[in-house]
Design brief:
The chain is an alpha+beta fold and about 575 residues long. The chain has a 5-stranded antiparallel sheet with strand order 3-4-5-7-6, covered by helices on one side. Strand 6 and strand 7 form a beta hairpin. Helix 1 packs across helix 3, helix 8 crosses helix 9 and helix 16 packs antiparallel against helix 17. The two termini are about 40 Å apart.
């Protein structure tokens, strides 16, 4: 069991079997509607036969189960190793409908298969674009997911406008029960209350719904207990022409949107899954993005729509304080079994919508808070404030569905009506602008050899006037750069290149240092309580105390064997 007050069970812990199974069923309850309704929506919109929709649902659930196992297990560099559920992405619904209307499921599979590698490419290049994919962007996307879910969740709670019980007292009370249980448990200090609150909320909500007579499980009888889809594998479309290019572009845009969402989900997942979260683990972040791409490739090969991470996992982990990845294996197993047992799958879908709506509204509020916490890990300066504010504003406009739709071509109209795409792309473009904003800079690369220190000092002297560095800043830069250089030299073999880059800012000078090899963390200041008892190894890193005293905003990230240190003077 994890130590401390934040988690009951950490990533590598194994909760009791009953707890594991119940929590796995909770994740199934929260994700099954998205996994089944996405194929149903696309199938009905395109006029697919019942047999084709059966295959669509069957393949989608199997792909989700396989992708979830890879995500949790972490196969090589693929997977984050955290508890995360994957399923069909809502960002692809619009372009998936267009693909099926144009060429059926075979064309849909081909488009997904061809566009999925883009996310793998972005993940591979994350060390070059890490300044674009920032916590501010990730937190914004998580809050955009909450904005997207709020109206959907409330519609489930209140019912649709053509429903006889729309906004009625029975619907209100039925949804209020799980809503209050979730919030009440979140305020409780009793561990078991928070651990079991989601399942308690669902069970009590169903009982209240039965009292009001708004439950209907009779339709489940129409589905067989055990069955394979009556429609066989549809295959893929290999005869592509230039007329498919606009469709392919829309899939690439949806892939970028899904990538931004996966980035935000994985960053948020790290913050709630680790007992003592201190910095983003970019290797795990890369793994999470890789598995999203691999899952989409598997989806494409199966001729179904692309995968993405499900954000509903984060608020449940935050609520129950259980991040054990073994639960992901059980969740995947249940999804795989349900693919072969339609009656079981449709039982979950038959749970009254007000119950799931009230539960979802409460969890969405927690999710919004998690997004805010992730965004707040970035420095809340003017630039990040604009990124977050503009992303949220444009996402809200997209949720209204009225942002000049006639100005967009039919195939790209989803850009202005999809909350995550419109808000996320806005935040991403602003991040790009601020990262590549023209600023005076200087750079140099030298070998990790103490004899090269004078060359480093001379370089800082040479750009003092050009970068408007004051005399005090110059000495501070020389001191801090010397300490980091010395630290790197002590831990690297001679001949390893160390790259320095200095950027001018009206209020400070940003120093960025990068190198390869195995290094201790520069931003973890050594303990200086008793200098006489420090070992020789500890003494070698004593200069980092000066770094922490003289510089500010010291960050050290490791990505694919490369180390990146940044600080301000």
């Amino acid at each position: 069991m994890a130590k401390g007050n934040s988690l009951l069970y950490g990533v590598d812990d194994k909760p009791p079997l009953l707890t594991t199974i119940v929590l796995a069923f909770q994740y199934v309850l929260l994700t099954i509607s998205g996994m089944m309704l996405t194929p149903i929506i696309i199938g009905h919109a395109c006029g697919l036969s019942i047999e084709q929709i059966e295959y669509f649902i069957f393949a989608t659930m199997l792909v989700s189960a396989v992708s979830t196992v890879i995500q949790v297990r972490r196969v090589g560099k693929v997977g984050s190793g955290y508890l995360m559920i994957l399923g069909p992405s809502g960002a692809f619904i619009s372009c998936s409908i267009s693909a099926v209307m144009m060429g059926g499921l075979p064309l849909l599979g081909t488009m997904v298969l061809l566009s999925a590698p883009l996310e793998a490419l972005i993940a591979y290049l994350i060390r070059y674009i890490r300044k674009i994919f920032t916590p501010a962007l990730g937190g914004t996307v998580i809050m955009l997911v909450a904005i997207l879910l709020i109206p959907l969740s409330f519609e489930m709670w209140s019912g649709k406008s053509d429903d006889d019980l729309f906004c009625s007292i029975p619907y209100f009370i039925t949804g209020l029960v799980p809503f209050l249980i979730i919030f009440g448990s979140y305020l409780s200090d009793r561990k078991w209350v928070r651990l079991w609150s989601p399942i308690f909320g669902i069970i009590l909500g169903i009982l209240v719904a039965m009292l009001f007579g708004i439950t209907d499980f009779s339709s489940i009888k129409a589905y067989p207990l055990l069955a394979l889809p009556r429609s066989g594998y549809p295959g893929l479309e290999f005869h592509l022409t230039w007329r498919h290019l606009p469709l392919f572009i829309t899939f690439l845009m949806a892939t970028i949107s899904s990538t931004i969402e996966t980035f935000g989900d994985t960053v948020a997942l790290q913050t709630v899954s680790e007992e003592k979260f201190s910095r983003i683990n970019y290797d795990r972040l890369q793994g999470g993005m890789y598995v999203d791409a691999v899952g989409s490739m598997i989806s494409g090969a199966a001729a179904v729509t692309a995968n993405t991470t499900y954000s509903s996992v984060m608020p449940v982990i935050q609520l129950t304080r259980v991040s054990a990845r073994i639960i992901g294996y059980y969740t995947a197993a249940i999804l795989a079994v349900m693919a072969f047992f339609p009656k079981l799958a449709y039982f979950f879908l038959a749970i009254p919508e007000p119950v799931m709506g009230g539960l979802s509204v409460a969890l969405t509020a927690i999710l919004f808070g998690e997004g805010f916490k992730v965004a707040a890990t970035s420095e809340l300066n003017a630039e990040n404030g604009i990124v977050i504010g503009a992303g949220m504003t444009m996402g809200f406009l997209a949720s209204l569905g009225v942002f000049f739709p006639s100005l967009f071509p039919e195939s790209l109209r989803f850009l202005a009506s999809d909350v995550i795409t419109f808000g996320g792309m806005t935040a991403l473009i602003l991040n790009l602008f601020f990262v590549f904003k023209v600023r005076k800079s200087e750079s140099m690369t030298i070998s990790a050899d103490h004899e090269n220190l004078p060359e480093l000092m001379q370089k800082i002297d040479s750009f003092q006037s050009r970068l408007r560095v004051s005399e005090k800043q110059k000495y501070a830069l020389q001191l801090t750069c010397e300490e980091v250089f010395d630290f790197f030299c002590n831990q690297n073999q001679s001949g390893t290149d160390i790259s320095f880059r200095w950027k001018y800012h009206p209020e400070y000078i940003i120093t960025e240092i990068s190198t390869k090899g195995n290094l201790d963390q520069v931003d973890e200041t050594p303990n200086q309580s008793n200098l006489y008892e420090m070992t020789d190894e500890e003494m070698k890193s004593l200069g980092l105390v000066l770094l922490g005293k003289v510089a500010s905003h010291v960050e050290h990230n490791q990505i694919s064997g490369h180390h990146y240190v940044q600080f301000r003077v």
